[in-house]
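seq as requested:
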Amino acid sequence: MKGGGIPAASVRKDPEIMKKNMGSVDRIVRIMLAIVFGVLYYTGVVGGTLGVILLVLGGVFLVTAFVNFCPLYLPFGISTRGRKKS
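struct tokens:
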């Protein structure tokens, strides 16, 4: 094997991993909550450990909203995306 890379046969391509499972309403709610958490923290309404937890949670909400994928939905088979019209 030249180049020291991973052989193509060993790379697993699983369509279930990172498949979009989040609808637009879900994304909007997550973005709005992240904004509210940030504002609450930076205005000093919430501080300390709770403030840090809310900031981290808001960051997770933003990332999942932008990638259209929630890993917690996967084991339960949840999808908030609309059904495809045929």
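The radius of gyration is 18 Å.
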